[in-house]
Specification:
- It is a single chain.
- The chain is mostly helical and 172 residues long.
- It has one domain.
- It has helices at residues 8-28, 35-59, 66-95, 98-114, 119-159.
- Helix 3 packs antiparallel against helix 5 (119-159).
- The longest helix has 41 residues, at 119-159.
Length: 172
């Protein structure tokens, strides 16, 4: 029986679910302060995208180009970004609303330690931070994932095995 190739949305969903589960474990285990665990999420994202590109090339028996392998990786990136953006919205609004308070407290500590702002300026800045936290968090997720997705898709397209005799122009 021939194995059905994994589609872009399925690959995006698999990688996203791994990232979401890891993020929830880190949060609920109280390990959010450990930077290495946050970096682990980027390692998973990168590994997942490289895996998606390599799998795509294998599913096509190496009859792929760098460009269409990169495009496949970027489509998976777009799927992951969309899923993670929706998850981020839901997490901040409903699952972990205390994240906003934690971020505000950390920002306050940084501003007080910096000793360059008056108490009134700090409160104004924190009020703005609270007001725009969700849009900035979503923008950060979207931009960050897309930029990292481009980088990891380029790496994935570079390392994916391609048939050296394959020419898409010849085979049309």
């Amino acid at each position: 029986m021939e194995q059905k190739p994994l589609s872009v949305p399925v690959k995006g969903l698999i990688i996203s679910l791994v990232l979401i589960v890891l993020g929830l474990i880190i949060h609920f285990a109280g390990l959010s302060q450990i930077k290495g665990l946050q970096l682990l999420q980027y390692v998973i994202l990168g590994s997942g995208l490289i895996w998606a590109c390599i799998t795509y090339a294998k599913q096509n028996n190496g009859n792929v180009t760098f460009g269409n392998t990169f495009a496949h990786g970027f489509k998976v990136t777009a799927a992951i970004t969309g899923i993670i953006a929706v998850y981020t919205f839901l997490a901040i609004k409903f699952i972990m609303p205390e994240m906003i308070d934690y971020a505000i407290d950390e920002a306050r500590k940084g501003m007080v330690e910096g000793n360059k702002m008056t108490a009134e300026q700090i409160e104004q800045a924190l009020a703005m931070t609270r007001k725009f936290f969700l849009p900035f968090a979503l923008a950060g997720v979207i931009v960050g994932f897309l930029v990292l997705g481009v980088i990891f898709s380029l790496i994935g397209a570079a390392v994916a095995k391609k048939n050296p005799n394959y020419s898409p122009i010849q085979n049309q």
